[in-house]
Amino acid sequence: MAKSGVLEDGDGDPVVAAAAKVMELKRELQKIVKAIDEGDDVNLDALDKAHRLLCALKELKIKKRSLSSKIHDSSSLTVPDEFRCPLSEELMRDPVIVATGQTYDRPFIQKWLKDGNRTCPRTQQVLSHTILTPNHLIREMISQWCKNNGIQLPDPTQYSEDDGPTEADRDRFISLLSKMSSSLSDQKESARDLRLLTKRMPSFRALFGESVDAIPQLLSPISKSKSPSDIDPDMQEDIITTLLNLSIHDNNKKLVAETPMVIPLLMDALRSGTIETRSNAAAALFTLSALDSNKALIGKSGALKPLIDLLDEGHNIAMKDVASAIFNLCILHENKARAVRDGAVKVILKKITNRVLVDELLAILAMLSNNQKAVEEMVEFEAVPCLFSIMRGTACARNKENCIAILYTICFSDRTKWKEMREEDRTYGTISQLVQNGTSRAKRKASGILERLNRAVNLTHTA
To answer: Where is 96: in which H helix or E strand?
Structure first.
C-alpha cells in the first residue's frame, strides 16, 4: 500500500490527492467492517487488515493536515471574503448555491445537511429544498483569482459526494414513501424501515426536506383513517416515532411543525395508541416546542389539554416527556393561560402531593404562578401546606426556591393565607431558614414574605 506516493505526486494538488486516498481507504475499511458485522464468526485476518487500514488512515490524515498547513503558511495572500465558504472560512473549491441563494463550498454544506440541519447556516431560513446548484460565476472568479496569484485550484470532481444522500438513498426513500399508499402490509413494513433509517441516518432526515409531499406521504396511512380505532397501533407508533426522529435536530423543527397535519395527528396520538406512541408524541411536541413560533402554533392547536390529560393518567414511561413539553410550551405567556384553563394546576398539585416528578412539576407550577387564575386555584386546592411540606422534606435548593417563589405570589395575592404562613414559620422556621441558607432568589422571596407578614402584624397592633 503506497501511502507516500500519492502525497508526493507532483501532477496535481497534493492535499486533494491525499483526500482522495483517504476516501479510498475509508471505503475499503467500510467493506471490511461490514463483512465482519455480517459474519457469524470473527475473522482474525479481517480484523488485522482493518487495524492496518486504520493506522494508514491515521498517517494519511496527519500528512494531509501537515501539507495543508504548509500550503497555507507559504502564502501571504488574503483570500477575498466573497471567495471564502461561510462554514469553513476557507477558499471555496466547489461553490454551490442553496435554496436561500447563499453560496457554500460543496463538501461543507453537504456535511451540514447530512447532519440533519434544515436551515441555511448564514440566514437561518428554513430551506425549501436541499438541491445544491453549482455557482459557475463564483467558480470562474475564484479560478481567475487563483490563476493571477499562481495558486492551483483542483477540479471539483475530485471531491467525494459521500457526505450527502446517495442515489441509492434517494431511490430507497422514494420507494418507501410510495409504499405508504399501498397495502397495509407494505405500509407497516415501510413505516418500520423509515423509523429505523431516520434514527440511524441523518441523510434520511434531510431527504424529507427535499419535497413538500414527503411528510404528508409519511402520515397518509393515519391521516386518512376515519377514527383512531381504524389505525394499526404498531404502524401508528412507527410513524409518530419517525416524526420524533425528524424533529430532533433544531433545523428540522419549523418544517415539521408547519406541515398542516402534523400537530393534529400528534394530538390524536396523545389520546390513543400504545403508551410508547403517546410518549413519543409528547416527546415530539417537546422537541418541536424549542422554537418560539412552534410554541405559539402548538398552543393554539389545543395540544396542552391532551398533554395535561396524559400527565393526569400518570404513565411512568410518558410522564417526563409530557412534563417537559408542558414546561416548554408554558414559557410562552399566552400558553400559561391555556394550561390553567385546561386544568394544569389541579393535576400538577395532585402529582406533587403524591411526590411524583416533583422537580419538573414544581418548575411548571412556579412558571404558572404569575397567572392570577392559577394562584386562585393553588389556594383552592391547598397548595400552601403541600409546598411547606416539600420545603421541610427536601435538600434540593432549586425545589425550595420554586416553592418559596410560589408562596411569595400567594402571600401577595391572598391575605387569608398569612396566618397559615406565620404559624408555619413559628413552628418550623421554614421561611426564616431560607433567608439564611437559600439561593439568592429564595432569600429575596423569603425576606419579602416575612416583611409582609411582620408589617401586617405591626399594623394590627397599632390599630
So the answer is: strand 95-97
One-letter identity of residue 367: M
DSSP strand pairing (103-105 vs 133-134): unpaired
| Mean predicted confidence (pLDDT) in 238-252 | 87
**CA-to-CA separations, 426 to 390, 395, 411, 453, in angstroms, rounded:** 17, 20, 16, 12
For 211-232, the pLDDT digits (tens) are: 889 999 999 999 988 777 789 9
DSSP SS3 for 401 = helix
Considering the entire predicted model, what is its pTM? 0.66
- Which residue in 286, 293, 221, 308 sits closest to 255, CA to CA? 293
What is the C-alpha R_g of the chain?
30
Residue of 440, 446, 385 lying closest to 393 (CA atoms): 385
DSSP 114-142: HTT--B-TTT-PBPS----EE-HHHHHHH
Nine cell digits for residue 414: 391572598
Which residues have a Cβ under 8 Å from the Cβ of 5 and sit 6 or more positions away?
none
User: 339: burial class by Cβ within 10 Å (0-12, 13-18, 19+)?
Assistant: buried
Query: How confident is the prediction for the chain on average, in pLDDT?
Result: 85
For residue 88, give every residue at least 6 positions away whose Cβ sits within 8 Å of its Cβ, in sequence order, or none: 105, 108
Angle at 371 between CA 369 and CA 376, to 5 degrees: 80
